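haha ok so turns out i had the wrong file open the whole time. this is the CORRECT one, sorry everyone. sequence first:
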Amino acid sequence: MSEGWESLEGAISRAGGPVALLREAPAAPYTFPVTPEFSNWRDEQRAWREGCALLDQSHHMTDLYVEGPDAVELLSSLGVNSFEGFAPDKAKQFVACNPDGYVIGDAILYCLGEGSFDLVGHPMALDWVQYHAENGDYDVKVERDENSLLRQGPPRVYRYEVQGPLAPEVLREAVGEELPEVRFFGVAEVTISGCRVRALRHGMAGQPGFELSGPWEEGERVLEVLVRAGEKFGLRRAGSLAYSAANLESAWVPSPCPAIYTGEQLKPYREWLPARRAGSLGGSFHSERIEDYYLTPYELGYGRFVKFDHDFVGREALEEMAEGPHRRKVTLVWEGEDVKEVFASLFEREGLPAKYINLPKARYALFHYDRVVKDGRTVGVSTDCGYSYNERSMLSLAVVDEEVAEPGSEVVLLWGEEPNSSKPTVEEHRQVEIRATVQPAPLVEFARTAYRRS
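then structure:
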């Protein structure tokens, strides 16, 4: 950490605790530094369900390149994932936990070659790995390529996603030959306009597709061919507004509160981490205990990744948790009539309106937590929320008690803060109740049953 920067530990001490720091923090929800709309976000959302959407992921994620003889040892010691058989041309969703078994963050981990890896995602997991690389006894070197909001100059690589039922057809047209057989999270190399392109079988909207990457200098050339190849298939480029809500259909929670703000074991990490990484808390769920915001891998649907075939931070705690019971990740489908009332309140001359619902993405803090209630009792928290034009519904991804986790269960979501925080994203408003129906996560049947096999 450079001289003159306040550490996260210092910021927590100054604010009087992590909750006080995060509830009043001005950090807004993450923005995607790409074109907001190419046509309109409704049709762009439709494209990944009905045809093919092309999304530009080059600018909003951070890359942490880890290389050296001890790279596998480092990553294995921090990830809940097994590294057995992990080799070049493979990728995985890397999940890191604190010593108590609560999630710090997740990211996509590419194996680039022997002892060479690229960890791609939001900073939470990347910071944790970088800290241990720099402060642990590991023979590795790390190189960080920040997202385009922080970096000077272009990114190191381009990253495009083609997603939707017609995505394989578009890519086949661009490549000019049959595509290699690639399993989910497998990586193949294809050639587009003479450029070697890494193709990861993965996507953000729970539909067939590939994530394509290569040297930044070749990005425009590859993009031009993809767009031209997609013309006869009705390809639409999707901007940041549509893309920001794609995860609601695939059921990935992008920003759970990282479990880093407490514990003596993590104090050196908080002293290393700049305060600007603190983030912000918003929503109707409020507790003075920051631990009440922490989530486990099992609650986030990552239980299948947890493998006890290696030693890693949090292993002992997760072994105790493994047998459950666990709260479950679900999709909440908000009652349309109640959502209409929120918008109607904007036109009432008297009294405070409800908290504004931004479309298509509605969360207004980096870590968004709304209280979920059944018969007056808190039964869970709702996290990421927004509107799916494909479902014609407001959706949120929630973690709820087993007793209300079955599809069809009816709950109430409290929308808006009480009392209002002073975040710039929070106007003076009144809290309202919104009825919601519990549905599976992912909500879309294809994403739930066939996505990983397609």
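Residues 123-135 form the longest helix (13 residues).
again sry for the mixup
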